[in-house]
Amino acid sequence: MSEGLREKHKRRTRRRIADVATGLFMERGFDRVTVAEVAEAAEVSVNTVYNYFPAKEDLVLPPDQASPRRLAEIVRERPPGRSAAQAVLDRLREEVEHRDRTLGLTEGFGPFFAMMRGAPTLVARLEELGHHMNDELAAVLAEETGAAPEDPLPRVVAAQISGYHSLIFGEIGRRVTAGERPGTIAKAVTELLDAIEEMLGAPMLGYAVREERPCSE
Q1: In terms of Cα–Cα distance, which of 205, 46, 75 is closest to 137?
Q2: Which contacts (CB < 8 Å, 24+ apart) does range 14-19 have?
Q3: What is the Cα 113 distance to its own chain's centre?
Q4: H helices present in the chain, as ranges
Q5: pTM
Q6: Which pLDDT tens digit goes with each residue over 91-127?
Q7: Long-range CB contacts (< 8 A, 24+ apart) of 127-130?
Q8: What is the phi-psi region of residue 34: left when phi exceeds 0, alpha when psi lies from -120 to 50, beta otherwise?
Q9: How far is the CA of 63 from the CAs of 53, 70, 85, 126, 179, in angstroms?
């Protein structure tokens, strides 16, 4: 079997385990389902589940999708002329426009979100993720601006960006729980992004602007 086929098989197995687990969690609640029950329903061994998902929480929040490096990577990937704050705003607008699954702007996300909020360990994982996201972003800002270790600005800016990023996710969660449709939520979130950008002001929107690349002669 070629390497490509092996990888394809692994992806299918991983997806099947995740889908089965999600169905069980939605039906019975995260805390009422064991990894052994997930393995049995997915027709794999418990060890196989743990090979793909080292922790039970990873079945709902896999590290490759719920990454603590999300904000840092958005900032690292920004084009010339865009600041750190503007880059994150741009990405959020793009994700809202395309109803990206990252934001939960898909049909049927409400029950899934309710399941997550009903599990203390998943809530704790989300809070921990937010803290790590902020730390990773602050480190990137300090590196890119050449800030001294005692300079508080990278941490202040990171906290501001992380704050409005969390605000957007919180707003989506609140509206999803209320049963609003993705299109309605997207419109409201776009208006919220407009308000955030208007209130940030020049100091935030002008911090850590990536320099334009010099034109080649």
Answers
A1: 75
A2: 14/52, 16/42, 17/42, 17/44, 17/48, 17/49, 17/52, 17/53, 17/59, 18/53, 18/59, 18/62
A3: 14
A4: 3-28, 35-42, 46-52, 70-76, 84-97, 109-117, 120-145, 153-177, 182-205
A5: 0.89
A6: 999 999 999 888 888 888 889 999 999 999 999 999 9
A7: 129/61, 129/66, 129/68, 130/162, 130/166
A8: beta
A9: 9, 11, 24, 11, 28
Provide the residue type at 167 as one letter.
Answer: L
DSSP string, 78-134: PPTT--HHHHHHHHHHHHHHTT-GGGT-STTHHHHHHHHHT-HHHHHHHHHHHHHHH
Confirm if 137 and 52 have CB atoms less than 8 A apart.
Answer: no
